[in-house]
């Protein structure tokens, strides 16, 4: 029997898709089946050239995602745990590797794997009363959905070490002060603000935005010289595109560009 659908996809206009986590009875805890659905949905989005921005939200008013489904894991053998690990890695990478920008809208709890889904997005908008944490060391594991790497890149070693080693929880406001949250809004306003950001992204050249993201992501782990070479390759892929020709023509003609998207 197929697992019940745990995601909702909603298109806003022609180019923005909202990916809503929808397992409310478990506060969006990430089970094996949930991981498989996230992987499939993000793969479909990655192949859709009409999508220029993705917003990741939750249908639960009090939780973005509380992390791994520990009730499911409690009965795992070592072999089953390893199988689950392989499945869950694909889900996190599915969000991280989206070729178009992704914006997380966090209200309520974003814990462990839930925080890692948000960190896998390019921008993170949080309500002031959100509760954020990477508490894995408190249950005998470490962040395994990219948390050790992504939070360190966002906030630096010492702040990341404090978050991860203490397993402490902090508010959206504290997250903004630490540099973990990109935009802080009043409670209940994260989704609307994330959709606004996505719309502003989608108004720009999709070829340029995707190549800018590619250059930034690939260059982040290299030295400056290698990063500049990566940027040059992405610039070339953009500069000789139909989007570039349309952008220049629209500027000269003082009109809104109609992006070909290729």
From TrEMBL:
Keyword annotations of the record: Lipid metabolism, Lyase
The protein's name in its UniProt record: enoyl-CoA hydratase
Superkingdom as given in the UniProt entry: Bacteria
Keyword Lyase found: yes
MF (Gene Ontology): 3-hydroxyacyl-CoA dehydratase activity
A Pfam short name: ECH_1
Catalytic activity, as annotated: a 4-saturated-(3S)-3-hydroxyacyl-CoA = a (3E)-enoyl-CoA + H2O; a (3S)-3-hydroxyacyl-CoA = a (2E)-enoyl-CoA + H2O
Organism from which the protein derives: Serinicoccus hydrothermalis
EC number: 4.2.1.17
CDD domains: crotonase-like (cd06558)
GO biological process: fatty acid beta-oxidation
Family according to the record: Belongs to the enoyl-CoA hydratase/isomerase family.
Record's keyword annotation contains Ligase: no
